[in-house]
Amino acid sequence: MYTDFDDASRSELAAAAYVLAESCKKFPTYSALSKQLAYLYDATLTSYIDYAWSSGRTVSLSSNFLDNSYALGGENLEAEICDLLCECLLEPNADNGAFDESSFNIARAELIDDIDSVINDKSRYAAKQSSKTIYAGEPWETPPVGTHELAEKVTPKAAYNAYGKLLENARISILCSGASDFAEAEKVFTERLAGLERGKVCMPRFIPSKLKAEPAVVEDAIPMEQAILMMYFKSPKVYDRYAVFLMSMILGGMATSRFFTNIREKQSLCYYCSSSPNRAAHGLCVNSGVDPRNIERTKQAVLEELRDIQENGVTDEELQNAKLNMLNIYSATKDNPSAVVNHYYRQIADEKTLTIEETCEKIKAVTAGQIRDAAREFKLDTVYTLRAPGDGEEDAE
Amino acid sequence: MMEKIHSDIVRETCLKYVHSSGVRVFMHPMDGYSTVTAQFTAKFGSTDNAFSVNGGEITHIPDGTAHYLEHKLFESDEVDAFKLFARTGAYCNAGTSFDYTQYYFSCTSCFRENLEILLDFVQAPYFTPENVEKERGIIGQEITMYRDSPNWRVFTNLLEGLYSVNPVRNDIAGTVESIAQITEKTLYDCYNAYYNPANMFLCIAGCFDPDEVIEVCEEKLKKREPLNVQPAPFDEPYAVNKRCMELTMPVAKPIFEIGFKRPFVSGQAQIDEYIYFNILFDMLFGSVSDFFERLRGDGLVNDQFSDGVFSGRGFCIPFARGESPDPDKVLEEVRNELRKFKAEPPPRGDFDRIKRATYGSFVRYYGNPDSVANTLTEAALCGASPFAMINTAAGAEYEKMLEYLNGLDEENVCISIVKGD
């Protein structure tokens, strides 16, 4: 369910998402809902909130379950699970315009725990902290679930209101993948969603993140042994999606990438150094775990690799290897129902939806010239380092 | 000659073939898939830190050697394995655990070529003083990365708390100090001992032709003199080493892991232990339990609370873990719950529900080549049938589960806690 970004309701919508996967009228406690899922052969039911492209958020309610053919008692699992999803979505544990207080309080406490626990994972912490600078003044500046302070203020009524708006305005997509033809799923969703009252439906838009006039340099410190260096590049004007994917693979997205080969293997500067594109923001994130003494050398080595592609392009072998690698990833998608769902989910905002085969054709068509041109559009926006207080002030000799 | 092994439960057939070198090959062709995953595994993990060959003297090796060897095996005096796989588009990687090291690839094309690369590079070690030295800094960084992870530290501290002697108490990657002692000779000694074909197996699942696998194995697998490699025996006491392990590092809320020390068993008994304790702990402490609902309602645990069994060659640990403002209170509640159900066994209906869920979770493993290959490898590691896990889960009996419940010593437990400043 895609909905436009709204700063005020960040944590309200997040709390609502937690409650939806916690219980419903028919199964009013988490334990009752869990027992039903266990009975349905360990089916899962989860909710997830995330940024969607640059203009909004998605709340996903999803289930993973056995194909009917494996049900020992001949149960129609597909119909039962789809009905349960609809129960949770349409008949939440709520009364008088507010979620049930008991369920809500547990959900909100766990939302707050989730927000706070980012410190437990240094990479997640670095990503969260660096976002404040990378996306300053933009929606992505703050996590999609909001902050501890915002979450504490959410009431059962406010969360229910956010949920109501979601049902009214969200662009709702239903994605199914597996061995079934999903006729049962279609029937259940058609019937259950028929009575939903809808208002103006939100439409996703791509809004690239703004490039800073000068790169921002941020240093952060918490007790830790390794340091994390994150470098964020932006290409606000032009973004050739498939060329950028391949460029990112060549730089730091595969086992023979330039970062792996030159920065890790040849120079032994870090344990990992990877790059990943952000299509919605027109960004490219380089993430590395380094000895604090090697931060500056690693930064220069990353810049040098990008500069080399900007000036000299990529070799035929690099291009061929990156294409083969990506084609292998896309072809393997077909064996994984969750990956198939993700393939289509990522295209919800696109004018034209591409099949996996069509996507593979787009990748095959990318030229070395396109990659060089795409690389030339990227400029350094933010350099973020996280390390122990007072650690590694001097670069290694 | 190929042996067919069939499971009526998942309606799948797997093939077993033993190459003349001694390498055991397990194949699970899967119709309608486009991927194939191949895993080449040596029974050599971080716990194998002292061994004898053919009854000779015991060789002690530095902690972290198996992992170090894994890093170096991709290198060659010509083209390293990563580059060869890159030319076919296959995804390749390796991993070292407590009791094995595994090299694997997955691909959607060029299967034969990829299998040839896998078998070639794993059988062609190339260790030099220079390339071994070059890796030390990288692995040192990997070690420090894990040291920054509270979830890893709470787990490794639990192992240290449970065991006094068993080498599972040592970190898989070793320490910066232990890896400083590793040389190319250490790696060759271990390679020659543990990468003996009789100590290795190949597991393949997905879209492939089994006859082609046999052709490649016949062509590529090298025969070597069988060796009798024996891990040095150790005398692990029954009781836990320490009842509580605590560490301070940045965390939002204390995280904990509670582990019960069990005598080690192998083969089908190891599978039984794994399945029955999973069912038992899911039933008593899982999201369906009254225990979980009560503690969650009291704010003692949150949705991060989980249970399971950590099991391998030489260890089996039923555990519960999560976040809590008061981990010691959670431990007390866990032990009380075990005592309560020993006195008054849980309803049979609860067992049936969890048995059904466990069956469902194992059936799902058969939904993609990676997890099928993992299942084959896990079964091969403990010397059980390829379908032993799902067969045991589907045939689990209430009375036997009660035997496991009554046989669990709730006093022989350690809690590992990581607290914030």
How is this structure best described in words?
The complex is a heterodimer of chains A (397) and B (421). Chain A has 397 residues and is of the alpha+beta class. Chain A folds into two domains: 2-193, Cytochrome Bc1 Complex, Chain A, domain 1; 216-387, Metalloenzyme, LuxS/M16 peptidase-like (Cytochrome Bc1 Complex, Chain A, domain 1, 2-Layer Sandwich). Chain A is 45% helix and 16% strand. Chain A has 15 helices and ten strands. In chain A, strand 4 and strand 5 (98-99) form a beta hairpin. In chain A, helix 11 crosses helix 15 and helix 12 (316-333) packs antiparallel against helix 14. Chain A is globular and about 60 Å long. Chain A starts with a strand and ends in a 10-residue tail after the last strand. In chain B, helix 3 packs parallel to helix 8, helix 9 (268-285) packs across helix 15 (398-407) and helix 12 runs antiparallel to helix 14 (388-394). In chain B, the strands form three sheets. In chain B, strands 1-2-3-9-4-8-7 form a seven-stranded mixed β-sheet, with helices on both faces. Chain B is built from 15 helices and 15 strands. The longest helix of chain B has 19 residues, at 129-147. Chain B has helices at 65-73, 81-86, 111-122, 129-147, 150-162, 176-179, 184-194, 210-220, 268-285, 290-297, 327-343, 348-365, 369-381, 388-394, 398-407, and strands spanning 3-7, 12-18, 24-29, 36-42, 50-53, 59-60, 91-96, 101-107, 200-206, 229-231, 244-248, 255-260, 306-312, 315-323, 413-419. Chain B is globular and about 60 Å long. Chain B folds into two domains: 3-231, Cytochrome Bc1 Complex, Chain A, domain 1 (2-Layer Sandwich); 244-419, Cytochrome Bc1 Complex, Chain A, domain 1 (2-Layer Sandwich), CATH 3.30.830. By secondary structure, chain B is α+β, with helices and mostly antiparallel strands. In chain B, strand 2 (12-18) and strand 3 form a beta hairpin. The model of chain B has no long low-confidence stretch (mean pLDDT 95). Classes of the chains: A alpha+beta (397), B alpha+beta (421). Chains A and B meet through helix 2, helix 4, helix 10, strand 8 and helix 12 of A and helix 2, strand 7, helix 4, helix 10 and helix 12 of B.
